[in-house]
Amino acid sequence: MTGPHPDYLSREDYARLQESTGVPPAAGGLLVAPIAAAGRAYGVLSVAADDRLAADARLSLANWGVRVAEALQRLELTAELTFRAYHDPLTGLANRALLESRLEDALTRIDTSPGAGRAPARPGSVALLLLDLDGFKQVNDVHGHPAGDELLRRIAERLRACVRDTDTVARLGGDEFAILLTGVDDQGLVEATADRVVAAIREPIDVESARVSVGVSVGVAVAEPGGPVGVRELVRAGDQAMYHRKSLRTGGWTRYQAPVGA
């Protein structure tokens, strides 16, 4: 196609287009208009026609191509803005807002207390792991902030590899992360995940031509079905467990012992 105007393709001419786009065969030829806006091509609009199609029909098809492209641009912009609002720009992980939204939804689903008026319960517990890196400041001080940023991105990749597709990994800010596990039917899953996280982060990481090592202190809090337990309560329990672990200066993970919400 040439330019922003519709082109007429004979039956023989559009064989390659049909092969690559799935455009169905048409009697006679095909009038094809680009779907393009702001210098970006999204695809084509096509209609069975012949080369005698009136000029106003050609113009109408071209206008529809522009309208469709503009609509696609708006959808892309909305999707991009939504992603930015709920994801950390450095690592691409969920941010605090998205984590809390998913945590609230998960806790609502397991709250089966009488008269709660909740949605049908989903089997399994909800577990929240709060992570604070050990030794991250030294990496920034010795190797610079670019190395620190690269370390955080690499940590994010390792955390994703430690969880299921249905779990949420979030960066809360600085060197603080969180993992939300839902539908936990076996408490061994929580322990195994915490073990994987600690082991993965302790492995040396190459950043900015340097090999660095950091540790992590993890606090684990679990909400069992039958609540009610709120977001703040679960986060507070995870924080207490994490700070207790951090005070030991050994890294690793600790589970909050008192019943959450008690």
TrEMBL record:
Pfam families: GGDEF (PF00990)
Superkingdom, taxonomy of origin: Bacteria
Gene3D superfamilies associated with the record: 3.30.70.270
InterPro entries to which the protein is assigned, alphabetical: DGC-Regulatory_Protein (IPR052163), GGDEF_dom (IPR000160), Nucleotide_cyclase (IPR029787), Rev_trsase/Diguanyl_cyclase (IPR043128)
CDD domains: GGDEF
All copies of domain GGDEF, residue ranges: 124-258
Transmembrane segments: none
Matches recorded under SUPFAM superfamilies: Nucleotide cyclase
Protein's recorded name: GGDEF domain-containing protein
Organism the protein comes from: Cryptosporangium phraense
